[in-house]
Every structure is written in structure tokens, then in C-alpha cells.
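USER:
Working in pairs, take the chain set out below, taking as long as you need, and write a paragraph about the fold.
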Amino acid sequence: KAPHYLIKETKKNWKEDAGKGLSGDILTLPSVLVAQKEIYTLDSQFNFHVFDLEGKKISDKNLVKNEKGLAFTAKNGQFYALSPKGTLIATNKDGKVQWQKTLEAPFRNEPVIYKDIIYLLSADNDVWALNTKNGKEIWHYKTTAPLTTLWGMGRPVVNNDIIVVPFSNGLVTAFDAQNGTYLWEEDMSGDKSFNQIDNLTQMIASPVAEENSVYLAGHANITKALNL
């Protein structure tokens, strides 16, 4: 209702229906991408929409029947859409499915792409590395950490061929991004412990990597900067 003080006037240019969100009113986020003068959205019914920058709908296609859409990411004109149940779809911008893979696990956030590998972190703390071209598994890390969050999770970050994964039990673990070799881990839970009820709303923020450093924020209000 009150625009930012630097914005002298707000004006709505256009409005277009982009599908249904989990509440029926909003999109599941993050589910909007803008690239090459086009807007791409994925709604909660796994419908993939493409608009131009003027709001004209270019295409509209359901990727999977009877599945919910959670989030998606893209690279080099290829789109990767994920459901909360672990259905991963690779499609081109016209909605033509290139490959499909089912990971039998719950998910809360979007995949991460680095070079030709797509990484996924499940809500029960498993990590997959898949080939973006065909969906074949490159490596898989299965942890014994329990599912401790229902509402959201931090997403991994990849830099300098190292992937840093924020597990919801308070551990942040680094692996070789190409082969999954364990490198190091950092405990972000501190001295403050949470019972199972408290953990429903606790999470580690998504790490941020720049050059050879990674920045972490997590349980018990701890922030750290580490050598990657």
C-alpha cells in the first residue's frame, strides 16, 4: 500500500493467470524464472507456463498428471521441475519431456545445478547428484539424520567443485561435487538443543559461497565463515 520511497509511482502493466498455488491463490515458490525475454512458471498442479514479457501466454502444458509441483530450475534452455514426492522432470521450454526420474523421498526446495550435474537435497537429508542430460545417478549420499523440519530447508551451494549441504539436524557437510567424496563437516547446532517439536520450525539457512569461502548461518543464532 505504501511504495518504497525511491519509487515515485507504481503502475500495474499486466496481469495473467499462472495457475494454482498450494493455497489456491499463490504459486509455490520459488517457481518463477525469467530468461531470454520470457517468463516461466510452475504451479502446484505441475502445469508449466511460458509468457513473454508483455504477459502474452506462449505455452501451457501439464508435465505430470496427479502430481503437485514444488519448484524448478533451469540451465542452457533445459528446465528441471520437482514435486514434493520426488518426481523430477527435465523438459524443454515447449514442455516436451526429455526424461523423468522418481526419487522416493520428500522435498521442500528446488534443485541446484552445477556444470552438468543437478543436485537435490531431500527433507529426510539425502543428497542426489544426477546427470542433467539423462537423469542417471552419479552419486547418492544417504544419511542417518532424521527428518527434523516440515516447513522448509536450506539448499546446497556448489563452488570450486565442492558442494556444501545444510542438513536439517544442524550439520553442514562438504563433498566433492563430482564424485561425492566426503570432505568435511561443521556442527551449526551449538550448545542449544531442540526437542522434536522445536525442530519442526528450525532450519539451517542456505550457505553462500564466494571464491574460496563459504558462509553459514544456523541453529542457536550461529554464523560462520569457513575456508571452502
